[in-house]
C-alpha cells in the first residue's frame, strides 16, 4: 500500500491527521487479515511551499523540512498509529526520479522545453480515467499551471530548472537537463516503484489529490512501465471542513493537532473524533466533536475499570466477528464503533445480572 504523505512546511492540521488515522486503520486491518503488509507513506521534502517557508523564515529548505517532519511524527504518534514500513523522502530518491524521467523521455511520453521536462498528456490515451474528466475540459490555470513552454495545457512538469531562490537556498540538483528539481507528481511514481515495484495493491490519499496528482502518477507510471496496472485499488478519504468552511489561512480556521494536544486533549480522543465519520464522506469539524469523543472514550474506560475481564472477553468473543466484518466492508469504521457501543451495553447488562446473583 502506498499513501501520499505530507508536504513538510508547517505543523500538521486535522486534515493531515484524518488521512493518517484512516490509512492506519486500513494498514492494521490488512495486517490482521493477511499477516504481512508493506505500507509506504512518503515525505515530500522539496516543494514550492517548503521553499517559500524557508525564504520567509530566512532558513534553509533542509531545516524547514527536517523540523516539520519531526513535528509531524510527534503529533501523529500521539494518535497511537503503527509506523509505515517505509517512509521515503523525495530528496533521498532524486537519482531514481531522474532515471524515471529519462525513461519517459526515451519512450516518447515526455519532452524537454526551455530547461523544463514535461509529461505529454496526449501521449497517454487513458489520461484522466481515474477522475473521469475530459482532457479538454480540465481546470487549466486553476489547478494546472499554464505555460507557453507546454505543447498541451494539461502537460505537467517532471523537472523544473533552478531559479534564483533555488540557488540561494541550495534547493537544486544536477540532471541531464541542467540544475533544477523534480515536479511533485513524479516523486510519488518514483518512490512507489522503488519500494513496491511496478504493480501494487492499494494507493491512498485525500480526495483532493485525485486530480491532478493521482491522475498524473498513473499516467507517468503506466507510460514508463509497459503492461503495468500500477495500483489495483484507489482509496480516497473525503474532504474535511471546519464549521462547514474550508480550512484556510485567510479564514484563520486551521486546526492544528499540536494546539489541540497543548490544550490538554489526548491524541486518542482526536483519533476517535476523526474516525467517527465514514472515511469517504466529507467530515465537518465542530466544537462538539471532541467532547462527544471524550465522553465515548470515558464510557469505555469506565467499563474496563468496573467490569471483570472474563465478562468482557466473553462478550468480545461474541461480537468480534461482526466488528471485523464491518471493517472489511469498505472500512466501515462508524459501523464498527456502533458494534463497540452495543458490546458495552451487553457487558453492562451481563455485569448487572452477575452482580444480582
Ligand atoms: Zn503522491
Automatic annotation (TrEMBL):
- InterPro entries assigned: Cys-tRNA-ligase, Cys-tRNA-synt_Ia_DALR, Cys-tRNA/MSH_ligase, Rossmann-like_a/b/a_fold, tRNA-synt_1_cat_dom, tRNAsynth_Ia_anticodon-bd
- Keywords from the UniProt entry: Aminoacyl-tRNA synthetase, ATP-binding, Cytoplasm, Ligase, Metal-binding, Nucleotide-binding, Protein biosynthesis, Zinc
Spell out the family assignment given in the record's similarity comment: Belongs to the class-I aminoacyl-tRNA synthetase family.
Q: Which residues form the Cysteinyl-tRNA synthetase class Ia DALR domain?
A: 323-353
One Gene Ontology BP term is: cysteinyl-tRNA aminoacylation
Alphabetically, the GO molecular function entries are: ATP binding; cysteine-tRNA ligase activity; metal ion binding
Question: By what name is this protein known?
Answer: Cysteine--tRNA ligase, cytoplasmic
Query: Which PANTHER family has this protein been placed in?
Result: CYSTEINE--TRNA LIGASE, CYTOPLASMIC, CYSTEINYL-TRNA SYNTHETASE
Q: What is its main location?
A: cytoplasm
Q: Output the Pfam families linked to this UniProt entry.
A: DALR_2, tRNA-synt_1e
Please give the NCBIfam families that the UniProt record associates with this protein: cysS (TIGR00435)
Amino acid at each position: 500500500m502506498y499513501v501520499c504523505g505530507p508536504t513538510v512546511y508547517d505543523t500538521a492540521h486535522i486534515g493531515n491527521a484524518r488521512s493518517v488515522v484512516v490509512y492506519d486503520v486500513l494498514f492494521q486491518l490488512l495486517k490482521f487479515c493477511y499477516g504481512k503488509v508493506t505500507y509506504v507513506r512518503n515525505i515530500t521534502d522539496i516543494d514550492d511551499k517548503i521553499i517559500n517557508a524557508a525564504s520567509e523564515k530566512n532558513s534553509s529548505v533542509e531545516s524547514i523540512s527536517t523540523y516539520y517532519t519531526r513535528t509531524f511524527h510527534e503529533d501523529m504518534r500521539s494518535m497511537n498509529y503503527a509506523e509505515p514500513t517505509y517512509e521515503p523522502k523525495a530528496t533521498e530518491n532524486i537519482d531514481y526520479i531522474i532515471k524515471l524521467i529519462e525513461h519517459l523521455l526515451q519512450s516518447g511520453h515526455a519532452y524537454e522545453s526551455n530547461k523544463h521536462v514535461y509529461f505529454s498528456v496526449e501521449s497517454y490515451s487513458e489520461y484522466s480515467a481515474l477522475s473521469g474528466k475530459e482532457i479538454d475540459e480540465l481546470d487549466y490555470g486553476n489547478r494546472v499551471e499554464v505555460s507557453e513552454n507546454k505543447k498541451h495545457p494539461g502537460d505537467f512538469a517532471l523537472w523544473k530548472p533552478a531559479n534564483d531562490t533555488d540557488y540561494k537556498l541550495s534547493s537544486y540538483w544536477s540532471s541531464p537537463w541542467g540544475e533544477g528539481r523534480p515536479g511533485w507528481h513524479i516523486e510519488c511514481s518514483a518512490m512507489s516503484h522503488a519500494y513496491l515495484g511496478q504493480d501494487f495493491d492499494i494507493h491512498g490519499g485525500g480526495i483532493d489529490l485525485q486530480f491532478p496528482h493521482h491522475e498524473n502518477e498513473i499516467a507517468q507510471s503506466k507510460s514508463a512501465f509497459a503492461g503495468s496496472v500500477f495500483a489495483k485499488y484507489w482509496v480516497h478519504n473525503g474532504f474535511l471542513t471546519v464549521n462547514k468552511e474550508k480550512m484556510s489561512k485567510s479564514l484563520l480556521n486551521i486546526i492544528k493537532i499540536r494546539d489541540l494536544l497543548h490544550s490538554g486533549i489526548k491524541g486518542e480522543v482526536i483519533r476517535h473524533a476523526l474516525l467517527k465519520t465514514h472515511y469517504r464522506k466529507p467530515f465537518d469539524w465542530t466544537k462538539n466533536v471532541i467532547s462527544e469523543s471524550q465522553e465515548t472514550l470515558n464510557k469505555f474506560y469506565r467499563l474496563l475499570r468496573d467490569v471483570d475481564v472474563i465478562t468482557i472477553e466473553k462478550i468480545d468473543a461474541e461480537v468480534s466477528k461482526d466488528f471485523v466484518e464491518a471493517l472489511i466492508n469498505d472500512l466501515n469504521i462508524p459501523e464498527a464503533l456502533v458494534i463497540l457501543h452495543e458490546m458495552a451495553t451487553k457487558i453492562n447488562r451481563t455485569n448487572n445480572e452477575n452482580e444480582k446473583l
